[in-house]
Design goal:
Length: about 270
């Protein structure tokens, strides 16, 4: 068995939404290091262009196509821009997302509409729009891949009052299963990643208070870029071809181990 080939992504084409920062950038950087041609998109053009330039410095290929994916018009325009350049797409990472926190009695309708639209609805319609290019790339021997970035907040009960966010991510996990069941017949495998604490602008607590957050994580640290890139490379490569419809947690044990700890604590009381 050639394990180097098992995880190889050389020569593939990937699209990473929300790729200008945070988890999206971590995945894009990991792909580029493995020889992938990566297209990134983000709503803010300046940040997106800057990230593409930075990730292309060492000979890699990162191309910026800024776009607002919160509207169907934006999704269609982005899909057209991508497929004009690349008739085949090997990997799609649906990472673009938003969060909203507010007390139960004050939570606004806007906080529901914005978050569910970007985190769940847009994932479906972008995958739908890029499905022809994914189908062209996918074969029985080397299927195309769609990786949806969910969250452990869609799996376990978070103490944060982020009602629309947890709903969107739980819905995305179920959507991942359903799309996987449909698209595998076209040699397109759909999976998900549920990150825990990683430094990002969305997770400001982990970014600004990492040492304190680490104390509440069984692994006793927050996630690194290598952790996120490693999970994405596994799912995108031959190594992950038999993982279909599953969402893997990359969280240092929070979603499952901490629940087990709570159960043991309750049993001892």
């Amino acid at each position: 068995m050639n394990t180097r080939e098992l995880f190889s992504l050389k020569g593939r084409v990937a699209v990473v939404t929300g790729g200008s920062r945070g988890i999206g950038r971590m995945i894009a950087e990991g792909f580029i290091a493995e020889g992938v041609k990566v297209y990134i998109t983000a709503r803010k053009a300046e940040a997106c262009n800057r990230t593409a330039q930075e990730l292309s410095k060492d000979g890699g290929t990162c191309i910026s196509i800024p776009m607002d994916l919160s509207t169907l018009a934006g999704i269609k325009a982005f899909a057209a821009a991508i497929t004009e350049r690349e008739p085949k797409i090997d990997i799609l990472v649906n990472n673009a997302g938003a969060a909203w926190g507010a007390a139960f009695d004050e939570f606004p309708e806007q906080g529901w509409d914005k978050v569910l639209t970007l985190n769940t609805k847009s994932v479906f319609f972008l995958t739908q729009a890029l499905a022809p290019a994914l189908r062209k790339a996918g074969t029985h021997a080397r299927p195309a891949k769609v990786i949806n970035i969910a969250s452990i907040d869609g799996i376990y009960l978070t103490p944060n009052e982020t009602y629309s966010y947890v709903t969107s991510k739980a819905g995305l996990i179920q959507l991942t299963r359903l799309m996987a069941a449909r698209l595998i017949r076209d040699h397109v495998i759909v999976t998900g990643i549920a990150p825990g604490a990683f430094k990002s602008d969305m997770n400001k607590v982990a970014r600004d208070h990492g040492d304190e957050v680490a104390k509440r994580i069984p692994a006793r640290r927050i996630g690194t870029a290598e952790d996120m890139a490693g999970a994405a490379i596994f799912l995108a490569s031959r190594a992950g071809d038999y993982v279909v419809g599953s969402t893997i947690t990359v969280d240092g044990g929070v979603a499952f181990a901490m629940q087990a700890d709570r159960g043991l604590n309750f049993a001892q009381e």
